[in-house]
Amino acid sequence: MTIRDIAPDLASDDSSTAAAQAAAFPETSGRTKGYEKRAVDAFLAHARTAFETAQDAPAIGAAEIRHAAFPLVRHGYVIASVDAALSRIEDAFAARERAQAVSAAGATEWVEQTRESAQVILDRLARPHGKRFQRVSVLRYGYRIDEVDLVSDKVARYLETGDAVTVEQVRGVAFRMQRGGYREVQVDAVLDAVVEVMLAVG
C-alpha cells in the first residue's frame, strides 16, 4: 500500500510537480486562516516517504501524524480538508503498525496489550463526574467539565459494551472552556489513548 492508495489526491510520481500536490487542497479566502501551505506540503512529503520506504522502524508513525500541527495564515489550506487527509494517512500508518506488532509478538500478545490499555482508560473514566481529571485554578480556563464528562461516558460505554463511537468522532471532539475546568493536557492525552485503542482493534 502507498500514500496514493490512501489519499490519491496527495500523491505524485514526480517530485517536481509540487503545484499539482498543492492543488489537492482548497485555499481559504478573505480573513479566514488556514494551514500554512509549505509546512503542510513538507510534512506530507515526509509522511509519504516514511510510509513508502520505512521498514520496522519508520521515521514517523500514526501518533506523529495525529499530533501534526501547522501555522495558521491567510490564504492557507482549508483546515478541514487537510485534517481529513491526515486522518486517512494516520489510519494507514496505524494499520501497518498493528500488522507489524502482531507479526512480531503474536496476535494474543497484541490483544492483551490493547486490553490493558483500554482498562487503564476505563479506570480513569470510572471516577465520579467532576473528578475524572485535574482541574485548573478558578483563575484559569480549562475544558468544560460537563462536556468532558458526557464524552467520557460515551467512550466508557464504547470500551465496556461496544456502543457505537467512531474514531472520527473522538478525533473531532471539541470542548468549550470554563474557569476552573478540566486540565486540557490530561483530557487530550486520554482521548489520544482512546484513538490508539480504537485503531489497534481496527
Question: Overview of this structure, please?
Answer:
The protein is mainly alpha-helical and 202 residues long. It has 2 domains: 3-104, no CATH class; 107-200. The chain is 57% helix and 6% strand. The longest helix has 27 residues, at 79-105. The chain is flat, with a radius of gyration of 19 Å. The model is unreliable at 1-6 and 8-22 (pLDDT under 50).
How are the secondary structure elements laid out?
Elements lengths: L2 H4 L11 H5 L10 E3 L1 H17 L8 H5 L5 E3 L4 H27 L1 H19 L15 E3 L1 H17 L5 H5 L5 E3 L4 H17 L2
Antiparallel strand pairs: 1-2, 3-4
Helix pairs in contact: 5-6, 6-7, 6-9
Structure summarized in a few sentences:
The chain contains 9 helices and 4 strands; from the N terminus they run ααβααβααβααβα.
**Radius of gyration from the alpha-carbon trace, in angstroms:** 19 Å
Instruction: Count all strands and give the number.
Output: 4
Largest sheet: 2 strands, antiparallel
Unreliable stretches: 1-6, 8-22
Per DSSP, what share of the residues sits in E-state strands of 2 or more residues?
5-15%
> Mean pLDDT score, rounded?
83
Domain unit count? 2
> Distance between the terminal alpha carbons, to the nearest Å?
17 Å
- The H-and-E topology, N to C, reads as HHEHHEHHEHHEH
Q: What structural class do you assign from the helix and strand content?
A: mainly alpha
Q: What is the subunit arrangement here?
A: single chain
